[in-house]
Every structure is written in structure tokens, then in C-alpha cells.
Amino acid sequence: MKLNGIYTALITPYNSDYSINEQALEKVVNNIIEEGVHGIVLAGSTGENYSQTLDERIHLMKLATKFIDKRVTLIVGTGAVTRTEDSINLGKEAKSVGADAVMISSPPYAVPTSKENALNALKIDKEVDLPILLYNYPGRTSVDMDKEFLDIVSKSKNFCGIKESSGEIEKIDFLMNNYPSIDLCCGMDDQAFDYFKAGTKSWVCAGSNFAAKAHIALWKACVVENDFSKGEKLWAAIKPLMINLEQGGKFVQSIKYGVNLTSVDAGPPRLPLLPLDDNEKEKFETIVNQMNKTIDQIV
Predict the structure, then answer these.
(1) N or C: which terminus of the chain carries fewer CB neighbours within 10 A?
(2) 195 catalytic, yes or no?
């Protein structure tokens, strides 16, 4: 599987009692597909996978498969669990519902060595046998998918991409130059333009839950049209939102409020997270409105 396009890290809308809001989930899926995203990544950190039971995650897989209806690529996350067996079971369930790929992250809290982490990923690969998007987010897992890890896992053809979310800009050249069989995918929203300039073709992004048009416009300018002058103008419009998301400290809360601005009720984040306060909402809405206005002028 080749990664090319905008892949939305899907939220999980909740009702006021924190149960899954299935109608809102369907609306978000339909909205972003109609706007033109190329794929959906389910059960990542934006989807609050860490707060969900395994049964809920399997239920979400079935819902997402039904709502997407093979219109775009579906990648299902198997992370945010420490037990390898749980990741394997989630991967097998993803395969059974027809997912196109799974996303593997480092087990949280356990802090495995690079070799242990690689062997863990290979075990999941062997048991599930689907294309795999790696998710390198050491800020959440305390483990970096480094050279030793990548040298081991890259021997398997299933490892087709890596969502790089370390924030280390030098990783772009390192990954692209040393692991050509693993497509590099931007996973750090405030660095997206740097990734595209380096030749990356894909972006797993959370803001496309509510602003897919802007994300797709940047991807199209840089990847399809190879027009980096236009891309730079688009990036100037988009970057304030990306900085707010990545550096504001309330990522999931902000994404959910962004979805609320599209007239879809995303509901609250699950505890321990709390929604944005009124001042944060006002600031966020101002950023989004200005971005949309500028994007419309450019496009």
C-alpha cells in the first residue's frame, strides 16, 4: 500500500454521558469524505483510543467500516495498549471488518528497548498480516522508533509507512534517505509544509476533521501541482491553526471544538481531559475563521 494524500485522524464523538455518538460519527465521516480526504485513521490518539475499552474499539471499527463503505482507505490503530496480545486481537478484528491497514505504535508505559519494540511489532505483523503504518510518537510512549528498530522491521514488506510525530525535523531526511520501502507520512501538524517540501506525499492530520478543504488544498498544491509558491501562501494561512493545535496543549479538545463549528456535535473529551473554556473557544474560532477566509481567497 502506498501512502499518498490526506488521511484524517478521526475523532470519536461522545454524548454528554460519554457514550459513543454514532450519528455524529457518521456525519463527520460523510463530511470529510465529501470534502475529498483520501483515507481515515481510526483509533489513534485523536480518537481518544487510550480512554476506550477493547469492546468499544471493536464496535468503532464496525461502525467506521459501515459508514466509510469502501469509499476511502481505512487504517485502524492497534496502539494505546501495553499487552501485545491486545494489539494482535485489535489487528485481527480490523482485518475481519475489512480494514486496509493497521497502525502500530510503541507500547506505552512498558518502555521496551528498540529491539524489544521491533520484535513486538513483528509479532503483530505475523499474526495480523496486513499493511502496517508505524506511528512514532515518543512524546506519548517514551520510546523512539530509531535506526535499530527500523533496521529490523523494514525487513518485512508489510511495514509500508511511518507517521512521524517526534517533532525532530532532521528525521525527515534520515527516514527518506535510509528507508525507501517505508513511506514517510507527516504526523506533526506544524511541520507539514517542511515534509511536503522534502518530498513527502501524505499527511495524517487531525484538523481535517473540520477543515479538510484547507489540508487538501495544501497537499494538492505541493504534491499534485508541485507549486510551492502557492503552497507557501496556503501554509501561511494554515500554520496559525497548526501551531495552536500542536503547541497549545489542548489538542483533542481543540479538534472536537473545531468539529462543533461545523454544526456537528462532537461532544466532550473523555476524562481526564476537559473541554476548552470560553476564552480558548473564542481564540480558536477566530483562527479557524481567518484561515478559511484566506484559503477561499487563494483557492
Answers:
(1) C
(2) no
